[in-house]
Amino acid sequence: MKSITKQKPYTEVSQLLEGLDRVCVVGCGTCATTTKTGGIEEVTAMKERLQADGKLVTGFLVVPTACDEMTGEMESINAEAFRNAQSILVMSCALGVQRIASYLGRPVIPALDTMFIGMEMSEGSFFETCVQCGQCILGYTSGICPLAACHKGLLNGPCGGTNKGMCEVDKEKDCAFTLIYNRLKEQGRLELMSAYHPPKNHHVTLKPKSFKIST
Amino acid sequence: MTASNLQKMLDRGNFAVSGELGPPKSADLSTLKHHAHDMRNHVDSYNITDNQTAIVRTSSIGVAATLIQMGLEPNVQMTVRDRNRICLQSDLLGAVSFGVRNFLCLQGDHAKFGNEPGSKNVNDVDSMQWLQAVKKMRDEGIFIGGDKLEHPLPPLFLGAVVNPFADPFEYRPYRLAKKIAAGAQFVQTQCIFDIDRFERWMTKVRELGLHKKVYILGGVTPIKSIGAARYMQSNVAGMIVPEALITRLKGAQDKKREGINIAVETIQRLRETEGVAGVHVMAIAWEEVVPEIVERAGLYPRPVLS
Known about the structure:
Strand content of chain A: 15-25%
Shape of chain A: elongated
Helix content of chain B: 25-40%
Distance between the termini of chain B: 13 Å
Mean pLDDT of chain A: 94
CATH class of chain B: Alpha Beta
Strand content of chain B: 5-15%
CATH class of the largest domain in chain A: Alpha Beta
Helix content of chain A: 25-40%
Largest sheet of chain A: 4 strands, parallel
Shape of chain B: globular
Oligomer: heterodimer
CATH architecture of the largest domain in chain A: 3-Layer(aba) Sandwich
Radius of gyration of chain B: 19 Å
Largest sheet of chain B: 8 strands, parallel, barrel
């Protein structure tokens, strides 16, 4: 599971940093490194770009996992870089941005847009495979989640828009239900295609979702 | 309380004809009223599209009110794209309150195809679930959440759409069975251009005995030009326009006339197909040809039922 991000247009970053001339750049060694949006290379490139724009970069670093609570410790390790900065530019997903913002009492600016929680299916290709609905139906759908894989999020698909196994909404993408159908057929379990799935409870846990391990 | 005209027509074994009206991108319904008036003696009921292709238009329920005022029978299309279950159920009650009896439960095109591509696709329930929800409201007097309606609903005639052509082809008859189980009393099919493929689908439908459990209305659209045929062939997913049909149009001097001829012949063939209970004539932006098609297909005058 990875948090999939893309870099914001530099003009937006630049706008967000208006009036904040001393900047510390923080990347993430986990997801944002895999997606090449906030690893050491991207952090270094950002540092150079900011410097070229006349900003003073007080420090730049890649923390192991920005969303982890251990990130708090980097504050003490890199105390000077943070102390001298007017703002922190975070090149991680929004989880990391929020984690860092909770530790530092100064403006934290996201350099990335968080798009989805996904899986790397082949090198450099990420797909949303779970929408964290709280009621897993993969047992009925041969391990493919239509809520994520079908553009219309159907539970009782396929719709009438499949075209030679491809989706009408994105002609490059396989129709989720054709994949499900083919896999169930291989498994000799096609009767599952006829099973009716009732409307989902969209509030299995109230939004914002939370969870506490019971002790 | 009586059944809708469309339901009566089918229940009594008449080969039904439904028409279709597309609401405008304004609140001025004068053209739509004009089209509705012109085909009033040729169709048994009018489908009213619901923001079709995800383009903002006057609501299907709003237009239904106008039709009822004109003494005509609407078949209100309801997609699940734009409304959650609270709104869907509430809108349905509103429509029933002023006389709508036919409802067609649909998924709806993805918003990216329309004029609000950034809007949220609601899809709180899917079309199958919505169909079953309406059936339960009508038959059991309960809402999706289990709460009771304060008063029973009148007889409603519930429809769905089916695509006999799309992949996986061998699954499509079973999908129809699923829609019947969910509550479909009639279905309208995707436009039929590849009648051989349609008949292969019908063979399986008959084998499963589904034609005896649901009224199947074959979708017929007259093709206006080679460009329109090509567009449907390559841009409308799940629609099959055979090359032979385009060749035939190419060979014709008057393409529009030939398009009408093809529609008439398709209807005639559908009338001979066991298990087809009627036709749904979709001539959006070419409504004026509907009377001629219906007449030439031998379906005029329409029976007047008490």
